[in-house]
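Sanity check

After download, print the first record. It should look like this:
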Amino acid sequence: MPSGLRTCPDGDAIDFERIYRELIRPALEDTGMHIVRGHAGFPGGEAGRDDLQSLVIADLVLVDLSTDDPEVWYQLGIRHALRPRGVVLVSGSRSLDAFATYTDRTLIYRLRDAVPDAMRVRADRERLCDMIESTRESWHGHKGSPVFHLLSHLPEYGPDGLRVDAARTFWEQYDRWQQRLDHACRHGRVGDLLVLADEAPVAAFRAGAWIRAGAVLRRQQRYLFALEQLDKGLAITPHDPKGLREKGRCLHQLALDPDSTLDFDAVRSHYRAILQQAPRDADSWWVLGRVEEDAWRADWQKETDDAERRRELARAGDTVLRAAINCYETAFRSDHKHFRAGSRALLLMRLYEHLTGATFYRATCDDMLGAVRFAAQCENGAAALYRARACLAELEMLSGTTAATQQAYEGAVAICDDDWHALDATRSSLQLLRDMGIEDERIATGMTVLERCMERLASPQRDWQPRQVFLFVGHPNVDGAVADDAHLPAAKLETAKAQITELLDELGGGADDLGLTQGACGGDLLFTEVCQAQGIRVSWLQPQREADFIRPIAADPDSSCHERYQEARQKLGRPILSMPQELGELPAEIDDDYRRERCNLWLLNTALACGPEKVQFICLWNGSPSDGPGGMARLYEEIARRTGQVHWIDTRNL
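Expected structure tokens:
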């Protein structure tokens, strides 16, 4: 937007600094936008390159067309040429007719003596907020750009296609943010991912981070919370293939859960919607085949004691079995490199003939067998080599000799890299044939080879997961490790400790549970000591590096907090995590309030990642409201909304 005091075409003057301070900036802040004010035109050097990058990649661009500044119109033209939406136009001098050729949302704000009209600025600000929200919500519908509106088949660019390589500042910050995401994914720290996602400057980046968080949660079997993150990402990028596949996997696992209300029809609908957009997507056909196969299995596996009854039910479900075969076959025909789909189709064709006596799959089997074998033989990628060898062994089991079958399975086992899960998946295919009553020497031979190797390997143990998570937050930590509640009288601190002890007793806290807090002197330290006395594991997540965090109490010779802190620290058994190391340093201009809120959000998301239903929120608080998404009141409201499991120790009543 223009700057300073400028004269408009109609001769009126406008103070654009006042317009920015009193109208535009407050409206953007009220809608939660991160603000970058561009220069008029593109200055030379790095600043100009960064301005161009911000212009084309920002979620929303607000343009003031009050003047006939050619640089402003030029920048608007660039945005319209590269992005289909995300522009709000404002003016303090032109009539609405000036915007007749545009499809963007427009606002005429009211002036008095070159500055915002004091009687109307509040209403203008509210109207501007509504326009910003409407523009943001129409992420995939309304095309505000006249270029994209008229040329409806123009492709839309993602962030990579809008990269200004010379804009080093922006992309260096992005690379550091991406490295933090990678680190969090490698260590399975979903709480880190969610905080970093919220801090991304662009919606597409946030979407990618939420989808990655959903993938990590899915691997941790937190399917409902994973779906929540995936849905947030897909609301921004609804056709993201990874996000759609991850959502399908979560839906699939929930359909397998007998306690879930989700059924297989919902999973089928999800994948069929994907296949309508990409009918030759082999991976989606493969997963839909798994869904159909699991739906078929679910009908007979519940009969655990009567083998003949299981086979009868399996035979009665032949329609669903054929649907699975069709999906696997289609996956292989869509991509001949997808040997796993081809092999699975062949195995189920053999099983179908055994169950029903129908022989119509024989010709198809003869046609596919050599093609699947050739595809598996051509695989040379290290990650897929075991699967290829296991596929070849399965083909020998279906069509070769006993000796060839043994040799093939031994060849696969030799390169399994001691992957117990991979061996178990291969064995389960043979077990399926045996469960359905197929007695064959080749099946027995393959089972023997696999089980001999699996006996040598220890069955993998799942990572420890807490039964309950006690999230404790005390008074605002305004000075390193010394919290406000540390200044409560000793008698009140003892009363608080007694109430924490009583509460954890009522909740059945013990060795199977986890406590999360910062470890500040005051309520955090009381909570930690009570947890350790009851055998509850404790993790500290701190807003600063530990040396900076504890400096205030280490410098106080009259305080017992430092000694208690060190004693509790030695009993933690878990490394202390610091926000700067795990999430990156905050910019210097960020105030301490957000630093505290960020750490509270980090604690909250880390707790929720263990399973929202497990979280018990305990706060030592005087009830005062606090602003910001990580303030005490917001934390209390968020967990109360999710689970209702909130416990407030009111310091005014101690």
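If your output differs, re-run the checksum step. Summary of this record's structure: The first strand starts at residue 5 and ends at 7.
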